[in-house]
Structures are given as C-alpha cells and as structure tokens.
Amino acid sequence: MGQCRICRADFAPFIDFGKMPLANGFLTAEQFAAEYFYDLRVGFCEHCGMVQLIEQPDPTQMFHQNYAFFSKTSTKMATHFQEFAEDVKSHHLISTDPFVVEIGSNDGIMLQHFAKIGIKHLGVEPSANVAQMAINQGVRTICNFFDENLACQIVEENGQADAILAANVMCHIPSMHSVVKGIKKLLKNDGILIFEDPYLNDVIEKTSYDQIYDEHVFLFSVSSLTYLFNIYDMEIIDVNPQETHGGSMRYTVANRGVCNISKRVYDHLKKEAKLRRSETYENFREHCERSKRELIKALLQIREDGKRIVGYGATSKSTTVINYCGITPELVESISDTTPIKQGKYTPGAHIPVRPYEEFLANYPDYALLFAWNHAEEIAAKEEKFREAGGKWVVYIPTVRVMA
Predict the structure, then answer these.
(1) Residues in the chain where the model's pLDDT stays below 50
(2) Which of 81, 242, 252, 337 is the most exposed place for a label (fewest CB within 10 A)?
(3) Cα–Cα distances in angstroms (integers) from residue 365 to residues 39, 41, 294, in the given order
(4) Distance of alpha carbon 308 from alpha carbon 368, whole angstroms
(5) Structural contact between residues 348 and 21, judged by C-beta atoms closer than 8 angstroms
(6) Residues 6+ positions from 356 with CB-CB distance below 8 Å
C-alpha cells in the first residue's frame, strides 16, 4: 500500500516488477557487490487518477555527477528540441525582454536555441556532469534540484519568467507540490508552463512497460494533471501529442482564466475515461506478463539455434526489461551503445557488458535486441548494412516479434 503523492489517498500497486536496480546505474565489476536495489511497484490512485511508483529511490541516487544520459546523442531528439524552442519563441515570448527557465535542462540541447540569439535564460539541472556540458556551450545553468525555495531564489536574482519549460523531467520529481508552488511563484501572471513527458495512455496501449523505472515516479494523463494544477488555480490550456519516447504528451499550462482552453484538452479528457477504471490496469499487468513470457521464449529459441544476440542501445528503459524478464549475458552477450560513459561498464542488475558501437559494426550479430525502440526509424536507416548482412531485429513493443 502507498500514499498518493498528489492527493494523499491510499492506493495499492497493480503490478510488481520485483527488485530493480537504478535504471542509469551502469557500473564496473568492482561495484557489483554494493549495487543498490529497490522494489519497483506501480499503483493507480482512484481518487485523483495519478499513476505512480509506490517507492522511488532518493533523487541524489539517480541524478549526480556521473549521470549517464545526454540528450544530444540522438539526432532526432536534437531536431525535436530545436522545433520545441522555435515554437516557444514564435508563439509565447511576447514581451520585449523575455526570460525563459528550463527545469531539468540536461546538456542544454533546448536552451542553446535561446542562448544563441541572446534571449535571457536559465537552466536548472541537478546532474553536475551534464550541467557542466551546457555551461561549456554558453548555456546559463545552475546545478540544483528545482523546488519552491529555488524558485524564490531565481525570482530574487532574475525576476519572473515568461515561460517555464521542461522535457521528460516533471514525471521524475516526487515532490510535485513543491515544484508547482515554485512554478506558480516563478511564472509571470500571463506566463506559460510548457512541458512534455511520456503519456500514460500510450504506455497502456503499447504495453510499453519499459517506460516504468526509478526516474519515472509518475505516468501522467491529462485528467490527473488537471487535478494537480487545479489545486494551484492553474489549468491546462492545450495538449499536443508527441512521438518522442514512444509516445509523449506536451502540456501547456497557465494561470486560471488567462488563456482560452483548447478543444483538444476536452477531447483528451473524454478519451481518458478508461484510465480511471481499475480493470484497465489489471489488463495492462496481464499484457506485461504475456510480453515477458514471449520475449524470453524468443530469445531462448534463438540461442538454442546457435545464433548470437546483441542488445542495441543501453537505455534507461532497458533496465526494466532486462531485469523483469530475467535476460542474462547467456542470452544477450553484450549491448552496443554510443555513449562513452556507459562503454566498458555493465548493465544494472543483470551485468551484461556494454560495448562500443564500433564493435557492433566490426562483428555483426545474427540478431539485435532493440532496446532503443523509440528511435526505431532513425536506427533502421542507420543500420541498413546490418540488414543487408542478414541481421535481424528482435522487438517487443507493442508486441514481441522478429523483423528482417
């Protein structure tokens, strides 16, 4: 049993993924003995509609000076954030000297588009290594966790913001009340908050259970966020579905009564009726269990046939799949990844070796297990030679299947 972080009601888990390591906790062999684990259980609060983890590790365990995620490693994401920034500049920055704040600004992939043209900006990033990368590229950044106290400090030093942005960050923060209080204080009365995160309905429909891991303390819906922002006299004025991360939603939020509410908001609220029913989550659990059985069966058959399997993309999401399904180095010999900080290390929990991408090119496996499935189109175009060499892809979202 857990207590809802939004409305304080008691709620029970609908799925238990078992003991789980930190999703981005790639480690050396010397660190195996001291590896951190927690119980990955997810519940649905029937009172406010929020889907959330029962337990989340302390944020300092997850976001630190060795954080292993850099947004700029994906060309697709670089383009996405450039378009995000352009949309904000074109439609929402109407004052003569606007101020833009980004919560969880990572390596500056979005704020750089404001910095380059001299727009006043500030990134708030708790992971020191990626914050420093942004600073090195001229993006004004502070290394800290965003909350109400930090918001007051920012206002005192910079004034209020015209726009507050966040991408794949809000769902990471357990103390949402302090965050929204901070946003309320930092935002001008006619300012806007725009953020995007993985969308609960996409997770349910695609059985993309790998979106559930330590950092994703919440899986948002329009209805659950409407409940949250209503507490602070704010409202969602627009929603815009995104393809990123396998299905995300971009929310635009303003102080109540300042802007008209888009018809899209009402349309999505109607579509989300099923997300308020407990049987939806019971069915989701059954689909996850079926996916687990079918994926292990497929991998075992490939290995029994004497074929090699290599993972493609040592993603955060892969940690849930690997450990929930019980994928071992005997099934998947290694995982290919382009991120230097992960190379030469081992995956959390299962301790599958992470190898440089060049090794994948030099010695193609028979099968590649696509952990980075949300970048499938980009990867397929990049790996045409792997396909021509007879290589096949094993995918598991939305269903388990082998693709040539």
Answers:
(1) 64, 67-69
(2) 242
(3) 34, 34, 21
(4) 9
(5) yes
(6) 336, 337, 338, 343
On whether the CB atoms of residues 362 and 336 are closer than 8 A, the answer is no
Q: Quote the DSSP letter at residue 370.
A: E
Hunting for tokens 């940690």 — which residue is that?
319
pTM for the model stands at: 0.91
113: how many CB neighbours lie within 10 A of its CB? Answer: 21
**Amino acid code (one letter) for 264:** R
Q: How many residues does the chain have?
A: 404
Coil, strand or helix at 310: strand
Q: Is 333 exposed, middle or buried (0-12, 13-18, 19+ CB in 10 A)?
A: middle
In SS3 terms, 239-277 reads as EEEECHHHCEEEEEEEECCCCCCCHHHHHHHHHHHHHHC
The hierarchical CATH code for the domain 280-403 is 3.40.50.720
Choose among 398, 51, 354, 359: nearest CA to 199.
Answer: 51
pLDDT of residue 96: 86
Residues in Cβ contact with 210 at an 8 Å cutoff, skipping those fewer than 6 apart = 315, 317, 318, 320, 321, 371, 397
Residue 168 to residue 132: CA distance in whole angstroms:
19
Residue pLDDT, tens place only, 40-96: 999 999 999 999 999 988 766 655 455 444 555 567 788 999 999 999 999 899 888
Q: 139 is written with which tokens? A: 């993006």
Q: CATH classification of 71-258, choosing from 3.40.50.150, 3.90.76.10, 1.20.1440.20, 3.30.360.10?
A: 3.40.50.150
What is the DSSP secondary-structure string of 98-119?
Answer: -EEEEES-TTSTTTHHHHTTT-
